[in-house]
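User: Structure please.
Assistant: Input sequence and predicted structure:
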Amino acid sequence: MSHPSGCLYVVATPIGNLEDLSARARRILGEVDLIAAEDTRHSARLLQHLGLHTRMVSLHQHNESAQTVELLERLQRGQSIALISDAGTPLLSDPGFELVRAARAAGLPVYAVPGPSALVAALSVAGLPADRFVFEGFLPHKPAARRRVLEGFARETRTVVCYESSHRIAEALDDVVAALGGERRLALARELTKIHEQVVAGTAAELRDWLAADADRSLGEFVLLIAGAPEQRHADQITVTVDDLLKALLGAMSVSEAARVAAGLSGLKKNALYERALQLQAQKS
């Protein structure tokens, strides 16, 4: 089959199960002039499984700018290129944005070859609302930055989807509890479409404890889904509800802890709740 001159294909590849690769993707990977792969060693196993011998070059976060220049020249000479990542859909927390942007800016055809996507797969089985969601990608590596990002979700009413690695998933769940409260509903999808696939749901505190109970549960790649905060439609009713909540919490914990927990449950700002808790405590005394 002939390809449009200078055509770039953005091809989704399997997350785990090689059977997830579409027939169209198999055909295109065998017909293009070149494959730009995030890791040629990893992708070589996929091509070997398919019995393909298409030439590959690497395109990863450390060489993307330089490679984009060369690949764009190839496209402008009329070559066809398939862009793939290690797993799933390119550009979603994977390299490729610069190449796609450059190809489109040059007026070259760019086609999607859809297929596996960890975030869509996780949303479909998590049991959390999927009609409105926001994709955050990987959470920051540093604890302080990660905590700030999570605190920003306190009033987010859409389901939040994040990626996380095995090295940081336990710390990330600790930070979710600290930033949003232990009662915020979560789902955790591990090793999607692979042999040890698991999808568990519960409160933030429950999933933190579930993960800690077995070291093997921290292995693999994770999709973390955070339920949205309740819609805040009636400000007067919310003020009364939060006051009642703070009063109840102040009977069992410090002002700071009460404000933190109330923030996670209500989606309101922790600093404002802290000030309100101080007021309520002063009224009581």
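The first strand starts at residue 8 and ends at 11.
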